[in-house]
Amino acid sequence: MSSANGENPKILQNFIDGQYVDPVKASSVKYIPVTTPHTGKIIAQCPVSTAEDVDKAVEVAKKAFKAWSSRTVKDRVQALIRFHNLLYTHIEELAELIILEHGKNKSEAIASISKGAETVEYAISLPQLIQGKILEVSRGVSCQDARVPLGVVASIVPFNFPIMVPFWTLPIAIATGNTLILKPSEKVPLTMNRVVALLKEAGIPDGVVNIVNGTVDAVNAICDHPEIKAVTFVGTSHVANLVTERCQKLGKRVLALGGAKNHLIASPDCNIETTSTDVVNSFSGCAGQRCMAASVLLTIGSQQALLDRICDKASNLKPGSKPGEVGPVIDKLSLDKINSYIAESERAGAKILVDGRHWTSEKTEGFWIGPTVILHTNKNDKALHDEIFGPVLSIYESSSKEEAIEIENGNPYGNAACIYTTTGATADWFISRFNAGMCGVNIGVPVPREPFSFGGINRSKFGNFMDITGDGGVEFFTWRRKVTTRWGTGDLDLKLKM
Ligand code: NAD
Question: What GO biological process, any one, is recorded here (predicted)?
């Protein structure tokens, strides 16, 4: 167990072939300190693995693929059924790790594990879902298709959901018969480091799931490795684009989810109580570090009563890790970035309606900033356009629904968008015009849950155009073998006549 007081930071290892192992170049390997955002203290040291570690993981994953892919899907998911139980018996322990290394509050940590468990449930259902098609396409000729695993695949994940995002890919990738290399975020490597031991305990064979810790070198080695057949990435748009280009140069299958700037629109007929609660939960939950978090609220016309309720609710939130409290942001770099956007908005003439910056000065350690609400009058303010990734809501009063949709459509991302209204026709008008992959009506975090797939458009998603999770995940992690068969009936007719 890692130490929260920074006295004995745990030295992490990679997990290859069912064993925790030191990086190949153990004598020269560098380590990155992992800090807890509550205090900034070092709780672990994460190895910066090299291409040699990726090679080693690929070698064992390739070997494991032979036996694993030859098992039936029904057989493979038995271990996932046992793992699902283990996930819930260890939910408290895993939630504590998430709180420690990421800073989520207790209910957010538990919810993120349950959401991860949902993709496990989907994978467990695959024997019922992925049978191929078969049809007699002309007399005596049948066509059949079957899903075939790709081989060794890899997932590179961000810091903001230590367990949920790795579980967007892991269960479907392995249930469909692939073997996996996971590159966790160096900022939150502890949770998955523990989860792989539970996968082993559940009976997932050695070499089927491997962890290579690290940063850029490990990611580049994954993209470049000829034996890694497909790569998923989740993180900032800049890196998503780099990873996509690198993989595509080799003709590799790649799906890379990027950043977001999600717009919520409040129609004058929205329900003020439910809208204000939802908007505040959306922009301040997980300290705003969700790719589905609200970051811009466009009111149609001035809606003072709604703004007042949002400000009341946001300013009543407290820092901490109990359910309902707002946790810290991941690190100093992130805290400084968030603060700089608030300061720049203020300089540009925006009004800070709720100012969370006092949390930073009140807390003597860690990376804290309270929910902050900014009212902009200039559409060009940077905070209205860039991904800030903190508990900050930018509000702009648009003059009409046409102006609101023009602003939403003009943003380069395309993850989520939501309309708050009590009128079906208004909801339909916006839903059919939003430029976002995941749209909501009166739901600030419109995450499609299993069996639906998850994914945005534009600069929120790069690579081969499939979605992650659900049937998009199955499509991504398999290829279709089409078999056309003609046996003829002649011999049988002959035998029957004899
Ligand atoms: P990040 O891009 O900094 O890191 C993601 C992963 O890439 C990490 O594993 C990291 O080690 C690696 N990495 C970082 N820089 C790299 C580089 N130059 N070359 C190669 N690899 C590199 O992202 P983050 O800060 O960990 O996560 C937050 C971001 O993730 C936000 O932009 C958020 O919107 C996005 N996100 C998107 C989704 C989605 O579904 N679209 C979901 C979750 C998070």
Answer: L-valine catabolic process
